[in-house]
Input
Amino acid sequence: MNDATAIERPAGKNAVTWFGLCFSLCSMLLIRELFRAVSPQPGTTLTLAREACMFASAGALVWLVRRGEGLPLRSIGIGTSPVWKSLAWGVVIAVACVLPAAGIAMLTGYEHGPASQTFAKLPLWVVFIVVVRAGVVEELFYRGYAIERLQALGLGRFLSWLIPLTIFAVAHWTGEIANILIALVLGAILTVFYQRRRDLVANMFGHFLVDFVANVLPALFS
Output
């Protein structure tokens, strides 16, 4: 497990953990679809409201870990490595993800899709908030919490990887097949890194860097 020590598992609180799993795997989808029902192409105000709800849901999950399960944040991969090392590994993760993502985007023409065009119309500072949320909340939900708790509940390593990865990839259906493919490949890379190091901060930073390079950096130089 490299420099990550053994991580605490929930004991005797399976009902709370099953609720946490449902929450981590489904809440972002529900929030997104509720806001899509209001407007399929949200402007600044609606986007900010949506992102605030997603950040709030992440806070609720952290509260559930600490209070509902009575476990430390190490149980979801936070604090398992020094911050400087997490940031360094985040850069490694980003490098491992950027080239496959760029290749898929070029082959599928993803950057010219309707979802990408709608996203590009938002102010850059709003895009930055979305990028931060994606890195933090998606890794918390689909890697740190889901993988750890599925394994703790006895589903085994393969299913504990496959279930969150599948939901994570399919959840990107609004960007059509290209976005699903990108999410599947990058999600698999992020899953491997998390399983190897149990360092959620590194995953969060790496995920953020990938989205920053793809969505914010080009706008800064355009």
About this structure: Residues 99 and 210 are 10 Å apart (CA to CA). The chain has one domain: 14-221. The chain has a mean pLDDT of 88.
